[in-house]
MerR HTH family regulatory protein (Leptospira broomii serovar Hurstbridge str. 5399), 151 residues
Amino acid sequence: MQKFMKIGQVANQSEVSVQTVRYYESLNLLSKPIRSSAGYRLYNSDAVLRIRFIRRSQRLGFNLDEIKELLDLKIQNSNQCSRIKSKISGKLDEIRRKLSELQKLEKTLLELHEVCETANVTDPCPILNLLENNFEDRINLRHKLSECCSN
């Protein structure tokens, strides 16, 4: 006989809030639970496994729409490995693009930080001035000048 759990028990075992369980249910990420005679949602143990799958997938960078696709492939129960591998490859490409963008952002922030280190304490903060104007061009020019003139 299958054991059913109320929504609070599922949330507790899945380490999510009750609202999260309801939200996943509303997105059809979870099967509709049966209802008790008192109207309580009753879930089977698969709900906990599915929520853990969703949370792990989110930590890997998948959004809920992508997770729904993964779950649908899992439900089809046929050999979907190549399709899933393709989705993983797409996610890797996306993560690599984001990493590249973050590295560019880090470089720009470091250059802004350096501008502040060379500023006079009594002058207005040059970072605010650079942010107000087109700071990328000025930082790039400053960087080129420092390379040129540091010899």
In short: The first strand starts at residue 5 and ends at 6.
